Amino acid sequence: MKKTLLTLVFSIIGATQFLVAQVSEKETAARQWIKSNLKELKINSDSDINLRFVRKSKSGETLRFQQMVNNIPVFDTEIVVHFNPSGEISYSDHNIVKELVHISTTPQISKERAIEISDKEIGVSGMVSVQESNLFVYNKLDNTNLIYRVVTNFEENPGSWEVIIDAINGAVLSVKDIAIKCGTECDKNHLHTAKTSGKTKFFMPVESNSTLAFEPGTAMVFLSDPLSSAKVAYAGNYVDGNDADTAELNAQRVLVNLPEVDNVSGTYKLKSSYVEIKNIENPNRGLFTQTNPNFLFTRNADGFEAANVFYSLDNSLRYINETLQVNCRPFRNAGILWFDPSGQNGADNSRYSSAGNDLAFGEGCVDDGEDGDVIWHELGHGLHDWLTGGSLSQVNGLSEGTGDYWAQSHSRALPSQWTSADAAYHWMFNWDGHNACWVGRTTNYAALYPGGLVGQVHTDGQIWATVNMKIWDRLGRVKTDTAFLEGLALTNSTTNQQNAAIAVRQAAIDMNYSCADIKVMTEEYTAKGYVMPAIALRINCPGTQTVTADGLGNYTVPSFASLANAINTNCDAVVTQSPAAGTVVTVGTHVITMTATSGTSVNCNFNLVVQASLGVNDVVKNTFSIYPNPASTSITIKGENFENEEIEIYNMLGQKVMGRNLVTNESIVDISNLADGVYVVYFMNAKASHKFVKQ
C-alpha cells in the first residue's frame, strides 16, 4: 500500500452501459426542477441532458443526468437530483460545462480504428481484461474536441491506460496511465508508453453461463493483521521476513467460515456470489483451486493472501448488502468483484480499477493482501465508485479518506484489537505500514478543514477519515456506516469534503435518524472545520398504527410524540398531536396529525386503525402467549389453532421488520437481528396483536 493506485472515475463515466437510458418515475419531476434552475445551471435546456443512472435506496432515489451535444455525451459532466422517501428533492449537485464551444459531432474514424491506434500507441499485448472505446465531446485539453477515449487494462503492464484520440483526424491527443500513484512519493498521471513483451493481444476468456454451485468452506486468515490481534509492534519475529513463516505470525491466523465457495465438479475455487479470484495482472500465481473447500494456508504460501483477500472482501460486501441493506455492488462482471491477490508486477502497490471494477494487490515489503486495512481501503474506492455510478471524487482526497474510513470502521469493529488507549488504535495499515515499509496513515489526524489541506490526496483524506471515525465513536458502526455510504451516493466527481459532509448528514435526515443523531454529526463536522447549513424544521410520522378497541368499541388515543421525529438544527422543537392524547375514538380509521413547532410549525399525518375487539368465542379460539418477554435472541409463540397462521412484526414506527408463517402451535422466532426496542406481533388471520420487548 506504499503507493495506492486508484483508477480515476473518468475511466467509467460515459461507458457504454451508462449511455443506455435508464427509467425512473421521478424523471419528469427532476427535469422540472432542472428547468426551473436553468439560469443557475447555465445550460441551454433540460433536453440537452440524458438520464444515465438511477439508484433507489433506503435514503430515497437519486437520478444522474449527463450533459449532451447532439446525443454525444460531454465527458465528465453530471447533474445529480436526489428525492427523499417522501418524494421531495432534498439534495442536488452538478458538474457541467457552462460554455461549450460548438464543434462537429460526426466522427470521421470508427471506434475500431481508434482501438487500433490506441493499441499501437501503448503497445498492447498479452491478455486484455478491459478495453472500451467511447465517443465524447471533450474539453479537458486546450481545445474542445470530438474524441474517442480508449481505456485498456492488460496484464503485461499494470494500470489503466487511457488514450485520447481525435475522432476527426485520428491524432493522438493524450496518453497516460490514469491510475493515481501516490504514497511517500507521487507519480500521478505519469505519461509514458507501456512496456510490453511482444505477445499477441488476446482477451480474458468469458466463462460460460452455468448454475453456480456454492458450498460453505473455511479459511485461515488474519483479523485484521497479526500485529493488531497480538497487540505487538513490528519487530522480532513479528516482521515480514520475505513471507517467512514464524510460529508467532502463524499463531495469529484465525479459522473463519466462508459462506460460499464455488464447486464445479469437485474443484473448489475462491468464488462467491460477491467476489471472485482472477489473474488480471502479472505475476501469475494461479487461482489456488483445490479438491476441498477449506483454504488452510500458512502465510509463506501465496494461497494465504488469496484466501485472506477473498474472506475480507466477501465479508465486507455481505455486511453492506445484507446487514446494512445498502445495495452496493460492482456494475460490471455481473455484480461480482474480481480481485487479483498477486498483481502490480510484484511491486509495493495496490489499486482499484474503475474501468474493470476490480482490485489488484502488490507484494512488495509486506504483501498487501495480508493487511485487512489495505484490502478494505481499496474496496472503499470501489464502494465510492459503484454508489455514484462511476462518479467517484478525489477532490480534497475524498476517496482516499473514504477508503481509510471504511478500513478503520471494519478493523475497529473486530474483537481483541487495539484499545483506545493505544496509539495504534487510530493507525491505518498497522501491518503494511508504520514500519520500514512506509510510514502509514492515521484516523486521528489533527488538521482542520479547509486550512489543513496540503494538496496531497492521501494526506488530505485523513481529515475526512478522522471526522467520520469521531462520529462512528459516538453513533456506532451500523448507523455511521449506513449514513456514510448513503451520503456518498449523493456526491459527484467534483464533490469536496465540505459538500460530502452535507450529503452524509442529509442522507441520515432522509433515513429518519433521530435529531440527537443528526446533532452529533453536525457537531463533529463543524468541529473539524466544515460549514454545515442550518436544518429546516421537519417532522417525520410513524407508519399506520393498528390497535384493538375495548369491549365497548372505544379506544383512548395515547401520546405518539415519542414515535414522531422532529428534526431541526438545535433539536428544540415541541411536538403536539391532534386528536390529543386522552381522546376517545371508536372503531375505524382516524387521521393523527403531528405538529412540530420551533419558531415555525410543520405537520405530518398517519393513520390510526382501531379494530373491533374479538368476540368471546374468537378469544378462546385464538388464545396465545409470547415468551420470554423481554427477550434477547428469540421468542416462543404458543397457542391453539395456529395452522396456516401468518405473523408480521412491526417496530414502533409502524415499519414491518419481519414476517413468517406459523406451522405448529408452538413456534420459536429468531429476533437476534432486531435492534433493541418495543415491537408488535400482528396475527394476520386472527386479527390480533401483542407487544414484546427486545433487549
Automatic annotation (TrEMBL):
Residues in FTP domain copies: 63-89
UniProt keyword Hydrolase present: yes
Highest taxon, organism lineage: Bacteria
SUPFAM superfamilies in alphabetical order: Metalloproteases ('zincins'), catalytic domain
InterPro entries: FTP_domain, Secre_tail, Zinc_Metalloprotease_M4
Keywords: Hydrolase, Metal-binding, Metalloprotease, Protease, Signal, Zinc
Keyword Cytoplasm: no
Residues of the signal peptide: 1-21
Domain Secretion system C-terminal sorting: 626-690
Protein known as: T9SS type A sorting domain-containing protein
Organism: Flavobacterium lacisediminis
